[in-house]
Amino acid sequence: MTQHPASNSRISRFPVPTLNELPTDIREIIEAVHEKAGFIPNVFLALAHRPDELRAFMAYHDALMEKAGNLTPAEREMIVVATSAINQCQYCIIAHGAILRIRAKHALIADQIAINYRKADITERQKAMLAFAQRVTSESHTIEQTDFDTLAQHGFTQDDIWDITAIAAFFGMSNRLANVSSMQPNNEFYNLGRQPR
Amino acid sequence: MTQHPASNSRISRFPVPTLNELPTDIREIIEAVHEKAGFIPNVFLALAHRPDELRAFMAYHDALMEKAGNLTPAEREMIVVATSAINQCQYCIIAHGAILRIRAKHALIADQIAINYRKADITERQKAMLAFAQRVTSESHTIEQTDFDTLAQHGFTQDDIWDITAIAAFFGMSNRLANVSSMQPNNEFYNLGRQPR
Amino acid sequence: MTQHPASNSRISRFPVPTLNELPTDIREIIEAVHEKAGFIPNVFLALAHRPDELRAFMAYHDALMEKAGNLTPAEREMIVVATSAINQCQYCIIAHGAILRIRAKHALIADQIAINYRKADITERQKAMLAFAQRVTSESHTIEQTDFDTLAQHGFTQDDIWDITAIAAFFGMSNRLANVSSMQPNNEFYNLGRQPR
Amino acid sequence: MTQHPASNSRISRFPVPTLNELPTDIREIIEAVHEKAGFIPNVFLALAHRPDELRAFMAYHDALMEKAGNLTPAEREMIVVATSAINQCQYCIIAHGAILRIRAKHALIADQIAINYRKADITERQKAMLAFAQRVTSESHTIEQTDFDTLAQHGFTQDDIWDITAIAAFFGMSNRLANVSSMQPNNEFYNLGRQPR
Amino acid sequence: MTQHPASNSRISRFPVPTLNELPTDIREIIEAVHEKAGFIPNVFLALAHRPDELRAFMAYHDALMEKAGNLTPAEREMIVVATSAINQCQYCIIAHGAILRIRAKHALIADQIAINYRKADITERQKAMLAFAQRVTSESHTIEQTDFDTLAQHGFTQDDIWDITAIAAFFGMSNRLANVSSMQPNNEFYNLGRQPR
Amino acid sequence: MTQHPASNSRISRFPVPTLNELPTDIREIIEAVHEKAGFIPNVFLALAHRPDELRAFMAYHDALMEKAGNLTPAEREMIVVATSAINQCQYCIIAHGAILRIRAKHALIADQIAINYRKADITERQKAMLAFAQRVTSESHTIEQTDFDTLAQHGFTQDDIWDITAIAAFFGMSNRLANVSSMQPNNEFYNLGRQPR
Fold it and tell me: What value does the mean pLDDT of chain B take?
């Protein structure tokens, strides 16, 4: 069964700079990611033609995904995958599906949430979290106090609700950038976290 | 990384008979599938409480998916996965995604089509096929002669167009049965066809 | 007031075989229907270019529509008409509207359900049945336990719920075949069951 | 086959005055309609609790439907039926479907247009007219010069386009009044125009 | 900051008669409005090529908007603005937004309701009124007794519910006429009622 | 005509820190904005409970809105207003509508674009820009090469297309944060740029 490698020209509809062309700070970050992951996730290369935007993107991403809080790292990735599924974003579902499998230590969960979170092997509390993320993504103008009350009944604090909202909103932005640029996920992501270790 | 085995009680919201309770003809078919695949796809067990319906389902399925014709077996599975994605059917995307990977000898294609066929690593002709299947699934009442003309320009015959239509229509039915029954895909399907052999 | 007879060429966008070209088993079934109804419903002719599919279609149809069960024959036809209305299927609304009028012995009910089941002259229990059929047709991925509970409160058993689901799903398939083929209902159907006898 | 007569209490969710309670001008109009049609269409009774609104409604109706112009009386009714189908208005489809059958001298056409005008036994020019009426009804804010050009190519003048627009708009209002009031069509309408004379 | 005056040719896609060409009764009404408002609202000019329709339009408008009743004049305008926002009608939002600001003596309320009535600075009772108007506008076929009950709990009578319905329905018609004709609001409307007096 | 001042408690559903509680860098930025604008736009206060996110938000905002490029500052604000209108975001339409009026030196344009950009007093090129922004906002997964070609025909470069995409995507995020937090625009924004100077 063959893997079809992505040629560089297919990473994005927009220009993709080489590492040498990048500002030092960005190149060093990318090299650090390369070192850690074993490959360079294409999102870094696809956004790199706009260094200021990439810096802000990374800062915002880390402020939401690397911060302390009640939501577990796996739960944050669940929100990313559920949001990206609504927006039909190839890059984000494949890449963050891999991260979700790893963080949740659950080989099946990313595919399940990408298809229909209502049937995924997650808790009722997590389903409520994703139902809210879905509303943030699709109809945020209709969110009312009752939505907050429902989440509170599942034990979510105001801080948690902000986290769910901000993660869904940030990746909604990311989905649009990836969809318009036709950003291609690295082949490595497809299989990460699927095998027992 | 753990696999979470499905207990029998989770296969369906409706009664699931044991093999011994089944009519002989159905039991023999299921045992043959078990022999060949190494496991019993849950769809057989989930539909078995209605033997007459299961027999018609299998006959219809085979008439569409096992017949000769211009559409390749992989292309038929592409239609199944694209249709099931619109209907957000967990069972059908997971099970037929596996079959698609195997038939297309392509490890990534099922995930790509399940997310957004427009960005999948397939031909323009196959994208036209899936665009039509999408219209059959979502707005068949608006299909007009121009749709047939577009397909003809891609080399599809009248017989091919019927095949696309009938496969999309049949699996639209299957999607609804699986969604309402909350039919669970066997864990085996998730990883089939993902690894080079 | 004139009736505009359908020329054979208008029955379907796909080939329509003559009776003589058909396999014996199918021809005999069609002749029996002709004998009983006084005309040959076009669906038989429009599907006959695919004998294996037609056989499976008829077997599935009869397994759902001719079986014993709590749902009355009229109620089964209500589900067909309500489903076909959502999918805007000319053949199915006209043909099954006629059958519904006859089975319900109610001259107005088919038009009412085809327009808006909420305002039809049916029971609250039947409205709950059609509300569920509508969800099966339009958003089956969101069906949850609460849907089952609502139906149970109206006295529907698990077997009844399967029947509603399977009828809505099967005719959703039929609607798509008829829409794409532009299958034309026989003129006879339009007036059947409208007059007091 | 029984006809289920509508008791007066079912004509509308709102108060229905008796003829004696009505202002003289309105009572005389209603009595003239009764004389001519053989029954009183319920719309007159359902709107009569608001005499000023009923007078304006009738004046507007007649200005659009009784005026001279290129659109035939049957074509005007086609627009009414197509619009009412989108809005799922029981009263308007049943009552104006009857008028359409009579004016078009075509027993099948109203049911066909109510289901899907694209498959109705009408001309391409009439389909273009109804496609525009559908856009007026569902997405009038997106109508652009190209819509006007398409209609001009089918021979429609500016005056005709205004007629199509105004009829679709007026009956869109009527549909909402009938839907909210749950206005019930007279049983007589269901069968009018269905039989050869 | 410049105001861009509308040349007469931009008022509508359809013919716009001069005052001298109009029937006397209509000209006198328009001159009276001119006298009172200081300018002629374009809707009069844009509808004037159809005098009978304009007369019916004005009569219907006044029957709904000038009548006595529990709904305040400002509340009636709220319904107009909320309905017109759903239909994205430039003329109606700008013109009736101005009237709403004046009648409500509230400089911000029209913009708020045009964007999202749920967040507007109005009472819960008024939000219930607009939620119902939204349902009348977007999905009147699904309105049921529970909608009436909800309004009754907010103190609305049957007469009030008819008013809400009829205003939403009438301006839904008006929105479609204005959208198709590309009716342009007078520049004067944009700023009316925005400044403290 | 009264202005209804917003009490601090109504700025957001989430905690709003006082200036003294903020990190020095953020407080200094806010004080500089206050100095320049004459008031503190509520978005700064509503996001300030999350300093890291606010810093990334401001950096991203400035990278998109303050950068050089072919799109004029007014055009960038047009994209913001059109996007925010789709998402029905009160804060963003009111605040950026004001900025748009000022940057475009056009008192009417913001209201027009917020209602329906197709009817706004802008160029065909700007309408193409907003049509693309609308697709980015509502259906980015369907964007194809033909969308890029259409924009190129209007003279937009690849860099311009990225700008349109990124601005629509960023403010789609901002819209969701504002909608969920029920962020309230300062009253000052409503009237800015409406009067000739």
Answer: 94
Q: Is C12 helix (H, G, I), strand (E, B) or coil?
A: coil
Using CA coordinates, name the residue in chain F closest to B119.
Answer: F141
> Per residue, what are the HEC states of D95-126?
HHHHHHHHHHCECCHHHHHHHCHHHCCCCHHH
Per residue in D107-130, pLDDT (tens digit) is 999 999 999 999 999 999 999 999
Q: Tokens at residue A78, please?
A: 């669940």
* Encoded amino acid at C182, one letter: S
pTM for this model (two decimals): 0.95
D149-189, pLDDT tens digit by residue?
999 999 999 999 999 999 999 999 999 999 999 999 999 99
Distance from CA of B140 to the nearest CA of C (A): 6
Go through chain A and tell me how many residues it has.
197
* Torsion A141-A146-A152-A154 (CA) sign: negative
Residue C195: per-residue pLDDT: 84
DSSP state of D87: T
CB F46 within 8 A of CB F12: yes
Q: Which amino acid is at D17?
A: P
Dihedral in degrees, nearest 10, Cα atoms A57, A59, A60, A61? 80
What is this model's ipTM? 0.95
- Cα A169–Cα A90–Cα B181 angle in degrees, nearest 5: 90
* Alpha carbons C133 and C135: distance in angstroms, whole number: 5
Confidence of residue E173 (pLDDT cuts 50, 70, 90): very high
**Interface list for chain B against chain F, based on CB atoms closer than 8 Å:** 116, 118-119
Contact F144 B116 (CB under 8 A): no
Q: Which chains would you list as touching F if contact means 3+ CB atom pairs under 8 Å?
A: A, B, D, E
Lookup: tokens for D147: 């819509």
CA-CA distance, A192 to F157, in Å (whole number)?
A: 37
How many Cα atoms occupy the beta-carbon half-sphere of A168 within 13 Å?
A: 28
Query: Which secondary structure element, helix H or strand E, spans residue C21, and what is its range?
Result: none
CA–CA gap between residue C34 and residue D118 (Å, rounded): 29
* Amino acid letter for position A89: C
pLDDT tens digits, E61-100: 999 999 899 999 999 999 999 999 999 999 999 999 999 9
Q: What is the pLDDT of residues D181-190, one digit of tens each?
A: 999 999 999 9
By the 8 A CB rule, do F11 and F46 touch? yes
Cα Rg of chain B, angstroms: 17
Give the amino acid at E114: A
Chain F: residues touching E (Cβ < 8 Å): 1-4, 85, 88-90, 93-94, 101, 105-108, 111-112, 114-116, 119, 121, 182, 187, 190-191, 193-197
How far apart CA D90 and CA F147 sit, in angstroms, is: 41
Please give the DSSP secondary-structure letter assigned to residue E120: S
